[in-house]
Amino acid sequence: MISISALHKSYGKYQVLKGIDLTIENGTVLGLVGPNACGKTTLMKCLLGLAHFSKGKVIIQNLDIEMGTEYRRMIGYMPQNPDFPGNLQVREILEMMEDLRGESAKFKNDLIEYFSLEDSLDKTFEVLSGGTKQKVAAVLAFMFEVPILILDEPTVGLDPVSGAKFKELVRTRAKSGATIIIVSHVLSELEQVATDIAFIFEGKVLATTSLFELKKKAGDSAGNSSLENAVMEIFLEKSRGSK
Question: What per-residue confidence (pLDDT) applies to 208?
């Protein structure tokens, strides 16, 4: 579980996060949505320990992240643009991550087969296509048995088959109890995996709700509106209210 309370983050005089309050239960796939520059990336950086927040509290699996770095071992992270040493082979990158964590990756071999990466293991990272780099990043994020997964635009560059496989992987890991955060602008794909949606606007969480309830609010009683329509309605409503 992740608990975020009154989280603030500023860069100089520019305040990015303005009191984020958010609780994400185990087994939840949370879609983090909002307009550009609303604070999504900064929030992720704070959770990953890549940025120090100005004030507030973050608890990950009952650990206060300001009290040490052990919580980072509980997180699998998939960046939007994976950037690993270009001269290293895929096999070496996977082994390097195991060495850094000091443990064998439980799901590594299964995921290599799952994403058909056998023929890429001895290739250097720099010669891989964008889609193959993204698949390597997926393996790195999911190959350890971790309770938290943070995924930033994870399907960008993936072909339709690999994208479908990735979404099934997300659903499977959530069923096992993992807490998953996905940032994505591809709302039609997010709609297929998210259980809940958190809408961020101007550094604050405006709403956190189940996917069904959000769509129901924007559509009919059966929740038949698309996620894209539901998010657009919220965005337009808040934009009008901020003027």
Answer: 87
